[in-house]
């Protein structure tokens, strides 16, 4: 019989804060500020999990990733390039598939849990 030990991560590994406007060409409206608390990063950097909070604003969505989100609090809108919009609020969960092109819009300060499969790690 083999016993496996799994280390569960209860505390954030790293917390970062940034003003999204510091990324050239990303912000479309507002001045969103993000706080990210990483809870897991795979050894190859392609699987990420954590908690993210953003103040209101609208920006070009990041691409080359699958992202599962659970909205802990707040209200957001995802807007595809073709104009299709979906809104999500506290308690909603959804997947943004690799290849999505469009915008994130935070309508009220939002906190989400996320898991990302990154196809273009830094």
TrEMBL record:
Lineage top rank: taxon: Bacteria
Instruction: List the CDD domains.
Output: cupin_TM1112-like
Q: Which InterPro entries match?
A: RmlC-like_jellyroll, RmlC_Cupin_sf, UGlyAH_Cupin_dom
State the Gene3D superfamilies in the record: Jelly Rolls
Ranges for domain (S)-ureidoglycine aminohydrolase cupin come to 42-114
Question: What is the protein's given name?
Answer: Cupin domain-containing protein
Organism this protein belongs to: Ruegeria sp. PrR005
């Amino acid at each position: 019989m083999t016993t496996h030990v799994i280390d569960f991560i209860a505390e954030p590994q790293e917390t970062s804060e940034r003003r999204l406007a510091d990324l050239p060409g990303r912000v479309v409206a507002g001045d969103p500020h993000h706080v990210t608390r990483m809870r897991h990063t795979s050894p190859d950097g392609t699987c990420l999990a954590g908690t993210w909070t953003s103040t209101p604003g609208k920006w070009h969505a990041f691409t080359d990733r699958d992202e599962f989100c659970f909205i802990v609090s707040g209200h957001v809108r995802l807007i595809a390039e073709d104009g299709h919009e979906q809104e999500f609020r506290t308690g909603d969960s959804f997947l943004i598939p690799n290849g999505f092109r469009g915008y994130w819009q935070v309508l009220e300060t939002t906190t989400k849990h996320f898991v990302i499969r990154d196809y273009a790690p830094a």
